[in-house]
Design a protein that fits this description.
This protein is of the alpha+beta class. The N and C termini lie far apart (about 60 Å). Strands 1, 2, 3, 4, 9, 10, 11 and 12 form an eight-stranded antiparallel sheet that branches. It has three helices and twelve strands. It folds into two domains: about 30 residues; about 170 residues, Umud Fragment, subunit A, CATH 2.10.109. Helices cover about 20% and strands about 30% of the residues.
Length: about 200
Amino acid sequence: MKTKQKSAGGSLLELVVIVAVALGLALGIQAFLVKPYRIPSESMVPTLEVGQRVLVNRIGHRFSDPKIGDIVVFHPPAGSETDTCGDRQQDDSAACDRPTPGQASVNFIKRVVAGPGDTIRIINGHVIRNGKREKDSYISNTCANNVNRGCTLPTPITIPPGHWFMMGDNRGESDDSRFWGPVPRKSIIGGAFATYWPPDRIGLL
């Protein structure tokens, strides 16, 4: 009987250890490698719908810079809370070229449309980067009539070193870098690389 009790006790302990290790690994993976993220708004429609879930690679951008076209999760500048640009003399015909100091505690998800040193302007929701229009078949047509905020900002701006300019694919309905400036490297959490919910939209981005 004692042998059976010891065996049962050992099995229970082993199960507890296995569960604890599994939970630790899951938490560790989420904290350092991959994190799920729920789409909170319509700013990335039609690419990502409200409520859709994506997986974010938290480690990739620690070793390499974001690339044009990447969809990334980041902390926006503190000025995003009040649509404040870091350049108080900002021309109304230009996108914001400098963020306010500090970062907001919230997370945003947008597409990288320009990087350090790029010169851009916005025409009918399309980004003209270094004189060439972006390949933007993924955007919505909410700027087609050019009546929504930020759809046309014809005065060129240059992205400062160490910063990336973010815009939502739903150009006429997105709160993004046009209004509060480029995002510094340290504020970028990671790149979204796959969607896992709902089931009919599972796949790589």
